[in-house]
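<context>
A single protein, sequence plus fold
<entry> Chain with its tokenised backbone below
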Amino acid sequence: MTDAPAPAPGAPLRLFNSLTRQLEDFRPVHPGEARVYSCGPTVYNYQHIGNMRAYVFADTLGRTLAFKGYALRHIINITDVGHLTSDADAGDDKMEKAAASQGKSAWDIAAFYTAEFKRDLARLGVRDPAKWTVATDYVPRMIAFAERIADAHCYQLDSGLYFDVSTVADYGRLARAVTDEGEGRIDEVEGKRHAADFAIWRRTPPGETRQMEWDSPWGRGAPGWHLECSVMGEAELGLPFDIHTGGIDHREIHHPNEIAQNQAWRGCGGLDCAEHSGARMWMHNNFLIDRGGKMSKSAGEFLRLQTLVDRGYHPLAYRLMCLQAHYRSELEFSWEGLGAALTRLKRLVMAAAAVREAEAVPVTDRRLADLLARFDAAVSDDLNTPIALTLIEEAAAMKKVDAGQKRTLLERMDGVLGLDLLTLSREALRVRPKGATIDETAIEATLARRKEARAARDFAASDALRDELGAAGVEVMDGDPLGWDWRLES
């Protein structure tokens, strides 16, 4: 995406850099542009909702950069080869393992789960990046990248080409890790010089054939996971670029290894200069916590976006739930919390409906302009979306203001938050749970009869109709502050 709105009021944009562990002013490498790379999924399975928090965060960052007037170029990669079952560079390739277990080709597995991932992003209001980079499309560039750094930074074993982390300064600074032997690492490969050394090319073992393998100077095989992101970031954004994002789990192994490769590519400077890492800023969202223990694909059953929809929750309620917590804070998932987020979204949608048909005009009202300035200050303060949400609610509730100006204000704010307030209807938020049998026409007809009974003070009939709906799985929300409403129980 390269389209950018007119610059918002001028609070300086300050973001937390994981590499330096401090807030820093955003100063783009290329004036007027913002180049962002986000680590995408390994497409061997559906993504769980904890994975999806990373993309709500990255999308909010991108929307904020556009709101601030920067021409945004955002890249998200698709990992369809090279990611092993352990992030610490050990185990089987996730794609090959999934293909074997499902009796399909690795290419078919990748195509299916890539499509499902993109579908979930769309349902969450996450905008498409400027480009999707697919790892297997860049293998020739990966080989060329590895050839350039191999003599000074790598060594070869029977199992492949390994990066020697002692050849770059400050290895592990991002994770605040010590690079000596044994610091949380396991030396899985005989012959490695240091436990933290990692493969950038894996040779196919003698007598075996992979579904995804290529010829290279180090034998037929496949690239390492860490190499892929260095290559795709350099190819599409150039090194250094502005911001690299990912989940906090990447901060410990994947991103330090990526940084080491970038240092080698750029001449091996130390990390006191953040640009030697390949990006001026490294940003990470924290975990989504589920006390029920269903936030890991390795556990088998796990929560994904379709699970929420099957329970009757609109996907944008989950987006709002994510925005209620700062991206660097842990967020605990609960069904009660998701329900509260849905109610909050309903209130916003109903308030925005009053100005939906108004023609947008410039904001001149001092009260509205002040709200926009406060909103700008909030999102410019390291994406403080919890405060931004309270400000858009304040704007939506404001009375006796010009409808066109209010629409403009809500458009600008929602352009950052991505809740689709000016097109989403309250009816669309009633998501039908999987397995529900009663249809909406019957629900509304029964509710109309119940309203008549209550108006006639026939409370026995009213209660009977409520019980009838309850038996059909419909919760009648008499206490709904937004007016009479209902939801289908899952």
